[in-house]
Write a structure and sequence with these properties.
1 helix; two-stranded antiparallel ribbon; 15 strands; disordered N terminus; about 5% helix; 12-stranded antiparallel barrel; elongated; 2 domains
Length: about 270
């Protein structure tokens, strides 16, 4: 035991006497890159050849949504929502949490409360320089109560792609399947799993932000209700290195969709 302690002590003294301050295996006197991070692999000169460090980024986005429906299609309703979203990015992985609080008024009712909360995890890969594919999975927690037996936890899976046609123009699209676990109410409402498709065209500029238009088609969770079709336009405007603004307008193409919906969100990235 004494010999082991002596060996460790002598080894420590050797490292100190050799003068390798950044522990890259190259003596300080011969180190051409004296501050190599501990997580990097270095060459015989002490300079980084491969970095093993993966940075982690976060953002938080707060916003306001407003949606209206025409009495010729659905009951005349006006719904406003305060939204909160938080994201984390680490290498090819990202995670997201979304929640909101709504207030809805109609000709025969008034309601307010928390919407469902969604937790998602994504993995991105680039099989081609110009192509990004992202797979995701998520869970929808029943924080929204309606009294129609739809307070079960739902699960979803998604697959999306983005193709950069030029430095500024990109094509995107995706598919999401949601497993609805709510119990049917006999003679009143029947629930079903949903499928959602979307596709669009985007323009992106490093300094001026981005603009996109897209079409979406989503199966309703209610059996017998036509698919929800919408046409959307969205913008992202960076204010500085941290703050950014998101704006969206969605127009309903089907009777089952809100006629008009607008959203304005403010985000901070760090």
């Amino acid at each position: 035991m004494k010999n082991l302690l002596l060996f460790l002590l002598l080894g420590s003294l050797y490292v100190v006497s050799a003068g390798d301050a950044d522990f890259d295996g190259v003596d300080d006197i011969n180190d051409k890159c004296p501050n190599t991070p501990f997580s990097d692999l270095s060459d015989s000169s002490g300079c980084t050849t491969t970095s093993l460090y993966t940075p982690t980024h976060y953002d938080i986005i707060m916003g306001y949504n407003y949606a209206s429906s025409n009495p010729n299609t659905l009951e005349d309703t006006k719904t406003s929502s305060a939204t909160l979203q938080a994201d984390i990015y680490h290498g090819n992985f990202s995670g997201q949490i979304q929640s909101s609080y709504y207030k809805s008024t109609g000709s025969s009712y008034n309601a307010q409360g928390a919407n469902d909360t969604q937790l998602s995890l994504y993995y991105s890969l680039k099989p081609l320089t110009s192509l990004t594919i992202q797979a995701g999975t998520g869970v929808i927690l029943p924080t929204y109560e309606t009294g129609y037996n739809n307070e079960a936890t739902d699960y979803l899976g998604s697959l999306s792609m983005r193709y950069s046609a030029t430095n500024n123009i990109n094509l995107f699209g995706g598919y999401t399947h949601t497993m609805i676990n709510d119990d049917n109410i006999p003679n009143l409402v029947d629930y079903q799993d949903t499928d959602a498709f979307y596709a669009g065209l985007g323009y992106a500029s490093a300094k001026n932000g981005s603009l996109n238009v897209s079409y979406a088609n989503t199966k309703s969770i209610y059996v017998g209700v036509e698919n929800i079709e919408t046409l959307s336009c969205g913008v992202m405007i960076p204010l500085d290195t941290h703050w950014f603004v998101l704006g969206d307008y969605r127009y309903g193409l089907s009777d089952s969709a809100s006629d008009n919906e607008v959203a304005l969100r403010l985000g901070y990235a760090f």
